[in-house]
Amino acid sequence: MSIQDPTIQEAKRQRLFLLLCGIFLTNALIAEIIGGKIFSVESLLGIAPAQLPIGGQRLDFNMTAGVVNWPVVFITSDIINEYFGRKGVKRISFLTACFIVYTFITILVATKLPPAQFWLELNNTDNQGNVFNINDAFTKIFNQGLGIMIGSIVAFLLGQLLDVSVFSWLRRKTGSRFIWLRATGSTMFSQLVDSFVVITIAFYVFGNWDLKQIFAVGTINYLYKGVIAIMLTPVLYIAHYFIDNYLGKEYAEELSHKAAHE
After folding, report:
1. Ranked by mean pLDDT, which of 16-25, 26-35, 76-85, 204-213 comes out on top?
2. Right CATH number for 6-109+143-260 from 3.30.200, 2.60.40, 3.90.25, 1.10.1760?
3. 156: number of CA atoms within 13 Å, CB side?
4. Predicted TM-score (pTM) above 0.85
5. Where exactly are the structural domains of the chain?
6. How much is the pLDDT for 145?
7. Is 39 exposed, middle or buried (0-12, 13-18, 19+ CB in 10 A)?
8. Residue 259 pLDDT more than 80?
């Protein structure tokens, strides 16, 4: 049977879509789960605090651990858009949002379960010998609260819908050229909205932050995401190379052309 047989091509297309959706969904869920930890970028790099003057404050690059995985979500979204169009991105985005809700509900239930006494006793001190309540720690880490959950889901969906719309618009304008422009441009635009929406809902609507704090922290988050989006551009070209070889150059171009005009 020829490698160009339509049955083989369709099977490859479906396997590729499942793989990309799996990468997208897995990284989005992990980012949500680990997002409660805040780390110092400067400490990680061994450099002095940035102390950027933003919004009347001096801020460092203190980021949520979720930023480790979100760039993978962004770039996977662009790849799905390239070969499967807006419908493909919207389908996995809404599905992921449903799984995020399910994850938060499951975590909420888990934090309400009564802890076993032996578990508390086996873990009643930390590494320094200080008194430690592992159940309280578990609850504090995983139970991020209603505000963060709502803000995260709204920002995720809004960011994805903006990303796919800008990506598709740029592709119609540039054709098959300038992959870097439509990928980086769509990410930069969508993350401008995402960076401010999530913290506005979580910490202004449901919390006690003022707008000055929202602007300052949102700006830091956006600067980080912008730098990462630019740094990941070569990864997009590498992914295209392997996908085109896997599908076959002609079939890959056919899928891309169809996705651009759906």
Report:
1. 16-25
2. 1.10.1760
3. 29
4. no
5. 6-109+143-260
6. 62
7. middle
8. no
